[in-house]
Amino acid sequence: MILVTGATGTVGSAVCERLKAESEPVRAAVRSPEHYDGPATDVVRFDFTDPTTYRAAFKDVSAVFLVRPPAISRVQRDIIPALAGAVSAGVTHIVFLSVIGAERNPLIPHARIESWLSAVEISTTFLRASFFMQNLSTTHREEIANGTLSVPAGAGKTSVVDARDVAAAAAKSFVDGITGAFDLTGPTAVDYETVCELLSAELPHTVTYHNISIPRFIIRQARSQPILKAIVMTGIYTTARFGLADRVSSDLQHHFDQEPTPLSTFITDYQSAWS
Ligand SMILES: NC(=O)c1ccc[n+]([C@@H]2O[C@H](COP(=O)([O-])OP(=O)(O)OC[C@H]3O[C@@H](n4cnc5c(N)ncnc54)[C@H](OP(=O)(O)O)[C@@H]3O)[C@@H](O)[C@H]2O)c1
Fold first, then answer.
1. Phi, psi of 198 (to 5 degrees)
2. What are the residue boundaries of the NmrA-like domain, all occurrences included (predicted)?
3. Among 2, 3, 52, 265, which residue is least crowded by beta carbons within 10 Å?
């Protein structure tokens, strides 16, 4: 049995679909099983912050897809106890959704999780993903539907990756037993002017890029979401602004036999999101 955490989220839901298509037994670990209507064959209540949910979740499980929920930053308190529970329950392989550059930034939660996992005697797969294309259809959905995209990325490029490709790599890691650390990116790096041109070409309306200042971005984001998330998002776009998010990797093709999806294809597939 493969336990998928974050099973209602962007990547976890696609991992469940992929594993089901491969006829792998998959259990969705969710906070509200009564509302779960996804593809997993089995569902269990699981909350990182509630250790009483660990035992039933990890029962008869050999492998785990690990998603660190974005709202959880206290790794030692909220994630490590669950991982320790998984290991003592007999889990032998953990595939972790990490973030590109985690190995160079020991302070971010993903780096601390990688470090803990590397120190225990189990197989690990670290999928260090670039920025998801799906941020355009979720976080920025409304403003794009209204014809603008305002982020403080300057002319910087980002090697955006389709979360469906990340999910495909995760599923293959389980099925083929692939271990190691991999950088998952899209096929090219794009700047946000180009992102808007591609959106405008596909959608019935024009989408204009506004390269807003960092302080204005933080203030705008903080109106609609927690300040911590606004700061994290600012950090991500500032990284792009300074040319630090444009590295393209071939790991998807070489290790997972997965051609990275071009941004134009993602936009075509998701166009109903912005209608
Ligand atoms: N966005 C990007 O561009 C990007 C790029 C690289 C890496 N990442 C990393 O990817 C991860 C997020 O993945 P995602 O975008 O697929 O997730 P997501 O769509 O944001 O969904 C979060 C998931 O976490 C679950 N969750 C929230 N709190 C929980 C808790 N206390 N216990 C158990 N489950 C909980 C949610 O389930 P409920 O249904 O219960 O709410 C949901 O399934 C983050 O670690 C992020 O840093 C993101």
1. -65, -40
2. 2-215
3. 52
Could you give the count of Cα atoms lying within 13 Å of 90 in the half-sphere of its Cβ? 10
| Atom in ligand 1 nearest the alpha carbon of residue 131 | 3
Measure the CA–CA gap between 266 and 268, rounded to whole angstroms.
5
- Please name the fold of domain 131-160+185-246+261-275: UDP-galactose 4-epimerase; domain 1 (3.90.25)
Residue pLDDT, tens place only, 186-199:
999 999 999 999 99
pLDDT tens profile 85-143: 999 999 999 999 999 999 999 989 999 999 999 999 999 999 999 999 999 999 999 99
Pocket of ligand 1 (CB under 6 A): 5-12, 30-31, 46-49, 67-71, 97, 99, 129, 131-132, 135
